[in-house]
């Protein structure tokens, strides 16, 4: 990993938790100890954003798991970046594979959400990745680059963006890309960014791997030069999350 890119671990709680379990997560994060060399952010359900931000361990960021593309209006059930900021949170996860493949969000909508979130002052973790049938068809780069290309017009400040590559076939399936497979895709993403954005952005932006990362696999994955951290699902609800945050120590 480049010396100019600080390690980053995001914990995506998804549709899990209540106040009691959040207290438990905060307890094991507090016990840590968490590495000072890793930036840590947890993504909690929208209804617990304020509770989590008010009780979270100092130095750990709190992210919303989604937001809409406008400040306010007649959009029942949605939440805006302004609301997220009002609750004391600085981050949002956008374009997660479940938003794309369960809720049908398009590349264009995700791009618009990213643009509005950045314009509103949030930091953004845009997610992208291929399905199993796309990988088996040899279309990984085609799919990943198309999703990235759709984001580009709306990314106005790369210093507030942390990219998350998540092979859909390795999320919650027990399957994990080998460190070599993950590194290969991360390297190709960085090369694409160099060619389509700039060499400076390609060198500086952090690219996370998100696909069933565990305490057993994190060190080998994290040791690859273009893997700057992880977006962790189920494992972020358990004490082993601390080991993942400390993968580089």
- Measured on Cα atoms, how large is the radius of gyration? 17 Å
Tell me, rounded to a whole number, the average pLDDT. 95
Strand content: 15-25%
| Net shape | globular
Terminal-residue CA separation: 13 Å
Biggest sheet overview: 8 strands, parallel, barrel
Q: Helical proportion?
A: 25-40%
Helix/strand-derived category reads: alpha/beta
- The number of helices is 11
Describe the structure in your own words:
- Keywords: Cytoplasm, Gluconeogenesis, Glycolysis, IgE-binding protein, Isomerase.
- Helix content is about 40%, strand content about 15%.
- Helix 7 packs across helix 8 (about 180-195).
- By secondary structure, the chain is α/β, with parallel strands linked by helices.
- It has 11 helices and 8 strands.
- The longest helix has 18 residues, at about 180-195.
- The protein has an 8-stranded parallel barrel with strand order 1-2-3-4-5-6-7-8, surrounded by 4 helices.
- The two termini are about 15 Å apart.
- The chain has helices at about 20-30, 50-55, 80-85, 95-100, 105-120, 130-135, 140-150, 180-195, 200-205, 220, 240-245; strands at about 5-10, 40-45, 60-65, 90-95, 125-130, 160-165, 205-210, 230.
């Amino acid at each position: 990993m480049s010396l100019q890119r600080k390690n980053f671990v995001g914990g995506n709680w998804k549709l899990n938790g209540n106040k009691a379990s959040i207290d438990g997560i905060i307890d094991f994060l507090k016990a840590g100890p968490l590495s000072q060399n890793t930036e840590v952010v947890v993504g909690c359900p929208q209804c617990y954003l304020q509770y989590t931000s008010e009780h979270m361990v100092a130095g750990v960021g709190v992210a919303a798991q989604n937001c809409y593309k406008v400040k306010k209006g007649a959009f029942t059930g949605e939440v805006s970046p302004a609301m997220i900021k009002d609750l004391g949170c600085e981050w949002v996860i956008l374009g997660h594979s479940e938003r794309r493949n369960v809720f049908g969000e398009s590349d264009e909508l995700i791009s618009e959400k990213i643009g509005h979130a950045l314009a509103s002052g949030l930091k953004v973790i845009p997610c992208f990745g291929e399905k199993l049938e796309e990988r088996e068809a040899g279309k990984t780069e085609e799919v990943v680059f198309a999703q990235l290309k759709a984001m580009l017009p709306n990314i106005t400040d790369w210093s507030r963006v942390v990219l998350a590559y998540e092979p859909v076939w390795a999320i919650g399936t027990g399957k994990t890309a080998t460190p070599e497979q993950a590194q290969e895709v991360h390297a190709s993403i960085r090369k694409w960014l160099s060619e389509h954005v700039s060499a400076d952005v390609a060198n500086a932006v952090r690219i996370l791997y998100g696909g069933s990362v565990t305490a057993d696999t994190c060190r080998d994955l994290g040791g690859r030069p273009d893997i700057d951290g992880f977006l962790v699902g189920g494992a972020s609800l358990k004490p082993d999350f601390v080991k993942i945050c400390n993968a580089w120590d």
